[in-house]
Design a protein that fits this description.
The complex is a heterodimer of chains A (362) and B (274). Chain A has 362 residues and is of the alpha+beta class. Helices cover 23% and strands 38% of the residues of chain A. Chain A has a 6-stranded mixed β-sheet with strand order 6-7-8-3-9-10, with helices on both faces. A 6-stranded antiparallel β-sheet of chain A has the order 13-12-11-14-20-21. Chain A is elongated. Classes of the chains: A alpha+beta (362), B mainly alpha (274).
């Protein structure tokens, strides 16, 4: 199975540049997730790969072939759409068979391939139904089946889970991942949901305003975000930030905020001011002797009880709000004064001007 | 009586009133046709005895076998040409980007905007010069041209209302634009197409002025012109012309009844989320 490469790809719509100089390699058989907020260019990138949008400049390769000038039918990719895009007048069987029939696959072989794909996806009983007679989950399965049955060179998936309810979404995540592993087909998956990206991708590529901000394995992107945008986008609840003054004490640094003083290990290339990033899971209600930095004080502004854990929005100062993770059983109320600590060696430092990362886990 | 049931009753009363207003002329015409041919009638009235004899007389005297055949030839050809040409043109205007698309579309729209009556006289002279008067083509070509304006406008709106993902999915599935149009989109567009067919058929079938100007021989006269056979210098044979009016109206009514479900769906397309 061939890999995919974007080589300095640009897409302009009139005066607006939707994708800027995108360069990204997807290895043969790899599952890469393009993730970012709405309007970041991820879907446009996918549509250019599918051949549904023309490339303004740059090259797209599938295997060794340059495909940016080829129509979709010559690219041999399969795409799953957010709204399923099933052909409403056709039965499930004909939906699955359409791509094969278009490619003039012999009828008997079509029947065999469709039946196999339907059985694999649990659609065997539904082959005579029309899409309107199916549930959302079943429709999504048909859309997946339509992609799978053709045995394409690449699967392209454009937010395929966003119309499903939360439980079904989790099930389908696993199913898509299994499908990809089983077929070994190179896959590019687009989502705005960072949890989906983290759980599904072998690698994730984070985009903003048409730019690729960072790409790498999910844990690398999570633990070593390239800048404040990636740090804030990947992780739920998001990392919280505070502007601090930097004082050197020998090799170590002291990070000063009127309401928060933190110490961290040696960091090169840091000025007199920096942005400190703290992930909620690296904070806890204050406990003496727990080895935390602190105690720090604030007022609880929001309580997000998730059962197993509770996330507390704490206003430490007018310009500093942090999210603190507490036990699910803890009893905190809005407006309570609250003491918390921060795990040592878990801070992220960012450049105060460019917002680029300076150091991680310090 | 609560507000809900009052509103419902009031709605039904209004609808019944409008239905009566719409149907009354038809009933008057049918009742008039039930009178013996040549009876002097003024206003609506029940015949002494109901008889279909006037229909037979009117059919024979008006030569409706030939008139209806001519009308059918013209209407079916116009509808077929309009449908075959409007669907791909509407698809192109509705889904594709090409140079001067907007300008071309506005040019096509002039067929709807410019009053047809203002074109008939110059058209007559042009057609006479090329020998197309007194021929079916003299009726078919202008009406096809006019209907295509509407057809393209109508089909473009329909194709624009479809989610683009359907075409995208088919394109990624390997289909060409032509295959996407006929295999994926046209089957979905049946209500819109049936509506277009019905409207174009109705307009073509009922066209009077063009036929009056272009056709002077008996062979190519269409059904609406047949109504004039019941007018003499001494007056109008009201039962006869009423029976003839029923003949002229019948094909459109029958076609509507056969396709009304699709027609209503086509008229409502886009107004209600499906």
């Amino acid at each position: 199975m061939p890999g995919i490469a974007f080589d300095q790809v640009v897409k302009r719509f009139g005066q607006v540049t939707a994708v800027r100089d995108l360069t990204l390699d997807v290895a043969d058989g790899e599952f890469v997730v393009l993730v970012g907020p709405s309007g970041c260019g991820k879907t446009t990138a996918l549509r250019m790969l599918a051949g549904l949008e023309a490339v303004s400049s740059g090259r797209i390769l599938i295997g060794d072939r340059e495909v940016q000038q080829l129509p979709p039918r010559q690219r041999d990719v399969a795409m799953v759409f957010q709204d399923y895009a099933l052909y409403p007048q056709m039965s499930v069987y004909r939906n699955l068979a359409f791509g094969l029939q278009t490619r003039k696959v012999p009828r008997e072989q079509v029947r065999q391939l469709v039946t196999d794909a339907a059985e694999r996806l649990g659609l065997g009983e539904l082959l005579d139904r029309k899409p309107r007679q199916l549930s959302g989950g079943q429709r999504q399965r048909v859309a997946l089946g339509r992609a799978r049955v053709r045995k394409p060179q690449a699967f392209l998936m454009d937010e395929p889970l966003s119309n499903l309810d939360a439980k079904l979404r989790v099930d389908m995540r696993a199913e898509i991942k299994a499908l990809q592993r089983e077929t070994g087909v190179t896959t590019v998956f687009v989502t705005h949901d960072q949890v989906e990206a983290m759980t599904m991708g072998d690698r994730i590529a984070v985009m903003r305003d048409g730019l690729l901000e960072q790409e790498g394995q999910p844990d690398v992107v999570y633990n070593r975000p390239a800048n404040m945008f990636v740090a804030g986008f990947i992780g739920s609840p998001a990392m919280t930030f505070g502007r601090v003054g930097v004082e050197r004490e020998g090799a170590a640094l002291r990070l000063n905020h009127p309401a928060l003083r933190l110490e961290c290990g040696p960091v090169a290339d840091v000025g007199d001011e920096a942005i400190v990033g703290i992930r909620p899971e690296h904070t806890r209600p204050w406990q003496d002797g727990a080895g935390l930095a602190g105690p720090f004080q604030g007022t609880i502004e929001s309580v997000e009880a998730l059962g197993r854990e509770t996330f507390l929005g704490v206003r430490v100062a007018d310009d500093l709000r942090l999210v603190v993770r507490a036990d699910g059983a803890s009893d905190h109320r809005l407006g309570d004064r609250f003491q918390f600590g921060v795990e040592r060696g878990r801070l992220h430092l960012f450049h105060a001007g460019s917002e680029a990362a300076i150091a991680h886990s310090v | 009586m609560n507000t809900g049931s009052f509103e419902r009753t009031a709605t039904h009363v209004m609808l019944a009133l409008f239905a009566v207003l719409a149907l009354a002329p038809l009933v008057v015409v049918v009742l008039a046709a039930m009178h013996p041919s040549g009876t002097l009638l003024s206003g609506a009235g029940l015949p002494d005895s109901f008889s279909l004899a006037t229909f037979r007389t009117a059919w024979d005297e008006g030569g409706f076998s030939r008139l209806m055949t001519s009308s059918a030839i013209v209407a079916v050809t116009v509808v077929a040409l309009t449908t075959v040409l409007s669907i791909p043109a509407g698809y192109a205007f509705g889904t594709m980007r090409f140079p001067f698309a907007d300008l071309l579309f506005y040019v096509i729209l002039t067929g709807i905007v410019v009053p047809f009556e203002s074109l008939i006289v110059p058209l007559y002279y042009s057609f006479r010069d090329v020998g197309l008067t007194d021929s079916y083509w003299g009726l078919i070509l202008p009406q096809t041209g006019l209907s295509i304006s509407f057809g393209v406008f109508w089909m473009r709106a329909f194709f624009r209302s479809l989610p683009p993902e359907l075409s995208d999915a088919a394109r990624v599935d390997g289909a060409t634009s032509w295959r996407i149009l006929w295999r994926v989109l046209v089957p979905i567009g049946r209500p819109a197409i049936v509506t277009m067919v019905l409207l174009v058929f109705m307009w073509t079938w009922n066209e009077f002025l063009l036929a009056l100007v272009m056709i002077s021989d008996q062979t190519h006269r269409t059904a609406p012109l047949g109504l004039s056979a019941f007018q003499s210098r001494y007056g109008v044979d009201v039962p006869g012309v009423s029976a003839a009016a029923v003949f002229v109206a019948a094909p459109v009514v029958i076609l509507y009844v056969l396709t009304q479900r699709q027609f209503l769906r086509g008229m409502l397309a886009g107004s209600i989320k499906g």
